[in-house]
Each structure stands twice: as structure tokens, then as C-alpha cells.
Target: Bifunctional hydroxymethylpyrimidine kinase/phosphomethylpyrimidine kinase
Amino acid sequence: MTSSCPTQFPPSSTLPAAASVPRVLSIAGTDPTGGAGTAADLKSITAAGGYGMSVVTALVAQNTHGVRDLHVPPAEFLAAQLRAVSDDVTLDAVKTGMLGTTEFIATVVAWLDDVRPAILVVDPVMIATSGDRLLQPEAEQAMVAFCRRATVVTPNIDELAVLTGSPRATTEDEALEQAARWSEETGVAVVVKTGHLDTLTVTNTWLSPDGSRIAVPSTRVDTTSTHGTGCSLSSALATRLGRGDSPADALAWATDWLHESITHGAALRVGSGHGPVDHGHRARRLQAAASSAPWIMPDAVPHLLETPADLGAPQAGDHGRNVTVPAPAVAPPGPWTAALWAAGAEITAAIADSDFVRALVDGSLPQHAFAFYLAQDALYLNGYARALAALAARSTDPDAQVYWSQAATGALTEEAELHRGWLGSADHTGAPPAPSPVTAAYTTFLLATALGEDRAVGVAAVLPCFWLYAQVGAALPAVPAGHPYSAWLDTYRDPGFVTATEQALAQLESEMAAASPAVRAAAARAFLTACRHELEFFDQALRLEPGGGAALLATETDRPELAGSAR
Ligand SMILES: Nc1ncnc2c1ncn2[C@@H]1O[C@H](COP(=O)(O)OP(=O)(O)O)[C@@H](O)[C@H]1O
Ligand SMILES: Cc1ncc(COP(=O)(O)O)c(N)n1
Model:
């Protein structure tokens, strides 16, 4: 038993005060199916970049359908767990979830009086999504009083009503008003969550006691995988605050990450009720992006391409998926470009399927990611124009000379248009945007190929930018009025761009027909490499943290309004 264990350790204060990885304690109940409570908290803290610790209040026999049984250990044991942690570890943030009983709340209060963590995020868990009670009715007022100790509370709509002693809000404005009153009275910030309201947009709004608001809207995901969303949001928020993020950055990060997690929750196929979110989706996406595996394996393209059939299909990439070749929106004019399209099918499908394209289309792409994408696009177009101009210089056929020169001018015009219509000239530090590693790698590859390889190889390298962009444009659905990116999506639908793509395809078809088998093989590799650069280019915007080097949009506002937003 514990009597033989020392309770006095070197005081935490002798250890380095500010850890770069925030040390975050969750005080919550359990969920053996891993979607809510302590399990969700630990996964969320890890995903948000923290070191997670867990003190268990109640053991809950629950699954995705609901709660079956509860086991509540003695309050002394809760106190012992809390002490064991705080006697040893400096805490950068504490998050509380299910506290269950008045006695447990009192135990945590006594411990907090002593420990006083800098950040306390209180998720006032009362009733689970399944309708099961997780807080004894007689403990509600103790929970309400407990919330006054928080840095920020994260009630859902029903919990907000109990907290503020109001009827359940039926609109976002009502909820905001309830929260504002309570926040002003108590001096505690509130995150108002509209997940439980019937709105197309789910908005998380940070309300400070001084009345200031930070609203982070996101599109509603049509899914039943929302078990544990409240636990996950509050834990991620605590972690980002614990690492020193501003409330705006912390809430933006937590909301965007959770949106991605909810979007991919159903694919986990965990349980047949209200399933969990996929807390690890972002980490796996970033891990895949960090892979150093070669994009084009040596055996992906034969050394000599005598006929288009030698190329085989589809084969590039390391995605390892079986793909059916998507129908090209701009038809290949001959067998060589048809074979190249088939060879790149896996990457084309991955772009269509990408989180970036999905988020751009459904409007959930965070504003900072969109601004970053546009700024990188402008930088890219400048490099791309140089590669196109190099092809003009290297062409001998007069039509080809004219075509590539015009294409280069077109890219520069587009770049200028981006600066004029969309982008500010500098980011928040006053510096002009710098190329990201992905943008630099792509433009360097294009220039090196257009200048240093056979001309056919250069033409193959510049083609995917035309062809895959036209492909994305053709697949775009009509978006509702008020969509934040509708004006940008319209630029994809420019018919002039389809004509330019057809001409580029005709150039490549004739270059391939005239080239030697070895040059054709090099051209096929360049084509597939450029396709992969396109995928990376889209995806890179979703690897950026809020405040992490995004350029500003020309009209510097808060996030753009989303369709259906109640505000
Ligand atoms: N269907 C959904 N689509 C998008 N985001 C959602 C959805 N449901 C929940 N969320 C996100 O999860 C957060 C917490 O969900 P909510 O249902 O409001 O709280 P709780 O789980 O505490 O009842 C919301 O603020 C929102 O960010
Ligand atoms: C231990 C515990 N804590 C919190 C919740 C609430 O989560 P949800 O409302 O999503 O069911 C839960 N089900 N279990």
C-alpha cells in the first residue's frame, strides 16, 4: 500500500518551469470504448501536443449506446490520486470532466486550493449524449459553483442553461447572451458551443468577462460519430492554453482539429451507436506527409517506353490503394497522354479525396489555411511562369513558342490578379510571404526540369498543373450562397483554362510521339513527380498551425462567414 511510498519528492518548482510540451492533467470518468472521458482526454491532449495525465473519478461501464453501470470509488482515493500527481509533477493545465458527486467536487476544490494550476478548463459534464446522467442531480449546484473557479468553462447548450439558471437556449444569440451575463458576473470565460443547436454551422465562441468574443465557426458534419466531442474539445483547448497559445489560437486549433477528427470518426467503425471521433487522424495525416519514401519507385516506370502500353497503369505513389482510373475532365488527345493519365490515376484520386479539397468545397477550410494557400499559389505561379518561359525559349516550332510564351504570361497575370484581388502584401510581421518547403521544392523541380532535361520531359513536368487543376475545377459542385470560398471556387471554372489545358496536352502528345524511348520514360517520371507535387501543394495548407506563418488576405477580417451561420 501507499504507506511505504514516499510522499515527499524534490519540489516540482526545482524542475524547469516551462516545459515545451505542456503537462496536462485530466480529471474525469472512464469510457472503456475509448471515445469519451479519460481515454478521449488523453488522446486529445496527445494530439494537441501535450503530455497527458489522468486522474479517474468514476469507472463507467459504457459503450457507444449508453451507460450500463457506474462504480464510484471513495473520495479519499480520488484525493490520493490527485496528490500523487501534484506532489511530483508541475501542471501546466488541468481539465475536469465528469466529477459525478458533490463529494468529488469538494475533493477537487480542496486540491485546487492547494495546487492552483495556471489553466483550469472545466467541462461541466452533466448528462451524456446518450441521455444518461453523469452528475448526480443534487450535485448540479456544486458544479455551478465549481465553474466559478475555472479559467474557461465549456458547457454544451443544456449545461449552459443549468449553469446560468436559464431556460434552454434555442438560438445561438440566446446562448451567447446567457453566457455573456454569467461571464460578466463571475469573471470566468465561457466557450459557447452550438453543437446541440439545429444550425448548419457549429460555432465555438470564446466569451471573455469584458464582453469580447472570438468566434470559430465550422461546418456541421453529418455524422453520428460525436461521442466524446465535448471531452475532446475541452482537453485540446486546455493543452493549447497550457502551451501558451492565445485563446484565439487555442480555440481555432482545437475546433479545426476536432472537425477533422469528427469527419473521419465513422471510418473507424467502432461500435454501432454514437461512435467516437478519430483523434489520431491529423497525426496520421502529418506522419504520411513526413514520410521520406521516394515518391516514384525505380520500377514504377520502365527504362524504355517503346509504346504507351509499356507504361502500364496505374502505378505511381505509395498510397497502396486500388484505384479505378477517374475519367479525365479534359480528354487526352492521344495514346501517350492517355497512358500518362492512367499511370497518375492514384494521385489524381488522392487529390479529389483530399481533406484540403473537401474542406475548400464544404467551406470548413480555416481562413488561415486558405490565406496560406493563396500566398503560396502566388509564389508558385511566379516560378511556374519561369518554367513555361524556359519551354518557350527551348521550343523551335513557332506555334509551340507562341503557346508557351502565352502560358507564361497567363501565369504571371494570374499571380498579379492574386495579389491585386486576394492577398495582402505582407504577413502580420510585415514581411512578404516566403515560399514553403513544398512550394520551393515544386518550383525548383519545374525549373530544373524545364531548363536541364530534354524538352519533352519539361513539358511533361508542367502539364499536371494544368490538367489536375482543371480536373478539380470540373468536379466542383455548386456551392450555396454565402459560401466563404465561392468567389475563389469560381476561378477554377474558367473555360479559358480548359482551352489552355487542351493545348498543353496536344504539346505533350506530340513531344512524346517524337521522343526517344528513354526520354519518354524520363518524361513519364517527371509527369508523375509533378502530379505528386500537386497533391503536396494542396495538402500543405492543412499542415499549418493557426498563427504559423500564414499570409493575410487582402481584406483582413476574422474568419469568413460560413454558409448558414446564425451571425
Ligand atoms: N456534427 C458536428 N459537426 C461539426 N462539429 C461538431 C459536431 N458535433 C460536435 N461538434 C464539435 O464538437 C464540439 C462539442 O460538441 P457539443 O455537442 O456541443 O458538446 P458536448 O459533447 O459537450 O455535448 C462542438 O463545439 C463542435 O466544435
Ligand atoms: C466518462 C464520460 N465523460 C463524459 C462523457 C460525455 O460524453 P458524450 O456527451 O459525448 O457522451 C461520457 N459519455 N463519459
In short: The radius of gyration is 28 Å.
